[in-house]
């Protein structure tokens, strides 16, 4: 699953799409990952090309596809 950094958003860090599972993963800058199910591949392409990834997610993804969260990874420092 290739990961695409999204520089068009201050809230979204990166996104990835699994064609086999039809899952869209979106990592937010705080570290939390949302995984959206049954997403068509065209939507991922549109997200990567969007002028504002955050606005695109709010308008075309959030609330339209079933989702689950993956808790943020804890970072440990010495």
Automatic annotation (TrEMBL):
Domain of life (superkingdom): Bacteria
One Pfam family of this chain: KTSC
Domain KTSC intervals: 8-65
Annotated InterPro entries: KTSC_dom
The protein's name: KTSC domain-containing protein
């Amino acid at each position: 699953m290739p990961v695409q950094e999204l520089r068009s958003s201050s809230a979204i860090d990166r996104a990835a799409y699994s064609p086999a599972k039809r899952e869209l993963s979106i990592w937010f800058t705080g570290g939390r990952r949302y995984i959206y199910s049954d997403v068509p591949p065209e939507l991922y392409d549109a997200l990567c090309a969007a002028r504002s990834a955050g606005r695109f997610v709010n308008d075309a993804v959030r609330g339209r596809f079933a989702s689950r969260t993956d808790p943020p990874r804890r970072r440990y420092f010495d």
